[in-house]
């Protein structure tokens, strides 16, 4: 893992003046007025970094002395507004669910409450302290340096998975042909252990896994690309095996998707932050722990058929892996 606090490893501006750079599309804007217009949109995960006169390194806006106070004020105002909006939405959906419940009104209410909880805990842990927000922004800027290559790889992997599944009439046909169907495994078709995790229920299932995989892999590869890849595949297989072992009690006859592998990466990130807190931004372990708990619960709000066994076993696999292996800090 590279030292993300070393700002000299960030991109450099060749001109001595105000400039902002979007790292994803490699777009730059010139001039102080143009840079100041970005203040009202800035957040710690923003792709925009800024170089100022006398400092050619592109840094998060909170690292620019002349801008940081106004940037943090703007960010805080938007935090307050978001929390208020989520609180009002939670009340509205809650009242609607009581007065006139519909098929998915309870799901919408619970999802809104969970989102409010995530935002509130994040505010209490990190977002009300300028130093902690600055740390988070610098960490995000560093790990995003290689995000294009990482996300491109994830995109290609998921597109291949999705295109292969399109050859079948529906998800049930794909599952019976190559999925982790426990009755087929019991008959000796153990090769399904390798193919089963890559079959998805529908487009929504595939899309959700695609998005979360990209986020998890970008962070995991910043720690160790090799360990992240190994953990992903091992957790995919252990989560499938655990689901099979628990099937007499859960009454599932199959397990679909790579979410076990994604939870494995999440567990690896979480245990690495617990073991080496000094290598991560402030409260990173607690932030990850909270998000993992939410990720375990939220699928059941949206889809009661989600496999808790697969998710827990994947998370446990990754967490154990992070505790067993060291992180090497490179220059």
Rg over alpha carbons: 22 Å
Could you state the oligomeric state of the chains shown?
single chain
User: Mind describing the biggest β-sheet?
Assistant: 4 strands, antiparallel
Structural class: alpha+beta
Keywords:
7% strand, four-stranded antiparallel β-sheet, 13 helices, single chain
Structure overview:
The protein has about 325 residues and is an alpha+beta fold. The chain has 13 helices and 6 strands. It has helices at about 30-35, 65-100, 105-125, 130-145, 145-165, 170-180, 180-185, 190-195, 205-225, 225-250, 260-275, 285-300, 310-325, and strands at about 20, 25-30, 50, 55-60, 180, 255. Helix 11 packs antiparallel against helix 12 (about 285-300) and helix 11 (about 260-275) runs parallel beside helix 13. It starts with 18 loop residues before the first strand and ends in a 7-residue tail after the last helix. The mean pLDDT is about 85.
């Amino acid at each position: 893992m590279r030292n993300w606090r070393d700002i000299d490893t960030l991109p450099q501006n060749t001109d001595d003046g105000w400039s902002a750079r979007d790292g994803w599309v490699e777009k730059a804007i010139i001039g102080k007025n143009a840079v100041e217009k970005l203040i009202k949109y800035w957040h710690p995960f923003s792709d925009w970094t800024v170089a100022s006169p006398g400092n050619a390194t592109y840094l998060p806006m909170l690292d620019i002395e002349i801008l940081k106070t106004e940037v943090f004020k703007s960010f805080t105002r938007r935090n307050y507004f978001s929390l208020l909006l989520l609180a009002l939405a939670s009340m509205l959906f809650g009242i609607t669910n009581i007065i006139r419940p519909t098929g998915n009104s309870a799901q919408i209410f619970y999802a809104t409450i969970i989102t409010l909880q995530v935002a509130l805990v994040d505010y209490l842990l990190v977002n009300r302290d300028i130093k902690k927000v600055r740390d988070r922004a610098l960490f995000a800027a560093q790990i995003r340096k290689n995000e294009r290559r990482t996300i491109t790889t994830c995109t290609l992997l998921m597109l291949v998975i999705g295109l292969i599944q399109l050859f079948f009439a529906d998800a049930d046909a794909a599952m019976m042909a190559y999925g982790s169907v426990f009755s087929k495994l019991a008959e000796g078709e153990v090769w399904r252990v390798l193919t089963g995790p890559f079959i998805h229920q529908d487009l929504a299932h595939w899309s959700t896994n695609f998005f979360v995989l990209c986020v998890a892999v970008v962070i995991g590869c910043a720690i160790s690309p090799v360990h992240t890849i190994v953990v992903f595949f091992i957790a995919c297989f252990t989560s499938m095996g655990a689901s099979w072992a628990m099937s007499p009690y859960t009454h599932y006859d199959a397990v679909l998707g790579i979410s076990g592998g994604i939870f494995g990466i999440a567990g690896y990130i979480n245990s690495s932050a617990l073991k080496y807190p000094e290598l991560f931004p402030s409260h990173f372990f607690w932030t990850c722990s909270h998000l993992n708990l939410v990720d375990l619960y939220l699928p059941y709000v949206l889809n009661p058929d989600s496999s808790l066994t697969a998710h827990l076993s994947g998370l446990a696999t990754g967490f154990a892996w992070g505790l067993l292996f060291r992180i090497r800090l490179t220059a």
